[in-house]
Amino acid sequence: MNHHPVKSSRIASIGYDESSCTLEIRFHQLATLQYQQVPARIFRDFLIVVSKGRFYDGVIKGKFPEIKIK
Asked: Which structural domain range is residue 14 located in?
């Protein structure tokens, strides 16, 4: 999965696999998390929003099945 570095105090990079609708988020201080069943538009919006942390908290966290990678 290709990752895109982002400007955020909490998030280092985000990646998306369209074939499985999987969003992967690498945090600076925490683990890497994968979210399942995420529509592609959520990933596209995530890339362009100014506040990645606020978007994560409001749109992604707790809204999709989560898997801790490391």
From this structure: 3-68
Nearest to 28 by CA among 4, 12, 47, 5: 12
CB atoms under 10 Å from CB of 22, counted, come to 19
The structural domain count of the chain equals 1
So what's the pLDDT on residue 1? 86
pLDDT of residue 70: 77
Tell me the pLDDT tens digit for each residue of 22-55. Answer: 999 999 988 999 999 999 999 999 999 999 999 9
Closest to 63 in 3D by CA, of 33, 32, 28 = 33
Q: Please tell me the predicted confidence (pLDDT) of residue 43.
A: 98
